[in-house]
């Protein structure tokens, strides 16, 4: 079966994502104008390996490497969508328009990622607990008619080992903080964690737990 987009060669994944003229043109018109002819004899596995390990093979590093991988994923997705649109009888994108659309989608995704990355930079980063310890992070989200209490427990590798969430009616902040503290302690107990670190921003409850004169009920 010949390629539905160019009608020239046999439609293999390598043709669609590496050799099809529309793919070559999309890359040539991108922020990373690769000459795809160089990669024409590669298997799709080899090509994906280059996209993922761009630092060694294409000398793209740091922040740019992440952007490149995002761009490559979007380009492949748009090439695939364009091919399907052609197969199902809709008009394929003109080869001039496809690079424009790819760059537009890439810019949108990049902006979305940037705001997430900035948020992460501004908030203190999470650190894993020591070996054989479990860290239970707890938080509350106040909604107009309820509060949602959440506990996420991770091990020293940062892997999530347990999660718990509960919805409660609205109450005073100290009551909410106490409820989430109860949830985190009961979760740790239920999961049988021998050594657990609790981390959250409910200061009043943390202080109460730390105070040796407070009798827990
Ligand atoms: Zn083709």
Describe the protein's architecture and organization.
By secondary structure, the chain is an alpha+beta fold. The protein folds into 2 domains: 13-122; 134-210, Ribonuclease H-like superfamily/Ribonuclease H (Nucleotidyltransferase, domain 5, 2-Layer Sandwich). Helices cover 49% and strands 15% of the residues. It has 8 helices and 4 strands. The protein has helices at 13-19, 21-28, 44-52, 54-57, 62-87, 97-122, 173-191, 203-210, and strands at residues 134-142, 146-154, 160-169, 196-199. The protein has a 4-stranded mixed beta sheet with strand order 3-2-1-4, with helices on one face. A hairpin with a 5-residue loop joins strand 2 (146-154) and strand 3 (160-169). Helix 5 (62-87) packs across helix 6 (97-122). The longest helix is centred in the middle third of the chain and has 26 residues, at 62-87. The radius of gyration is 26 Å and the shape is elongated. The mean pLDDT is 83. Zinc ion (ZN) binds at residues 3, 5-6, 8, 15, 20.
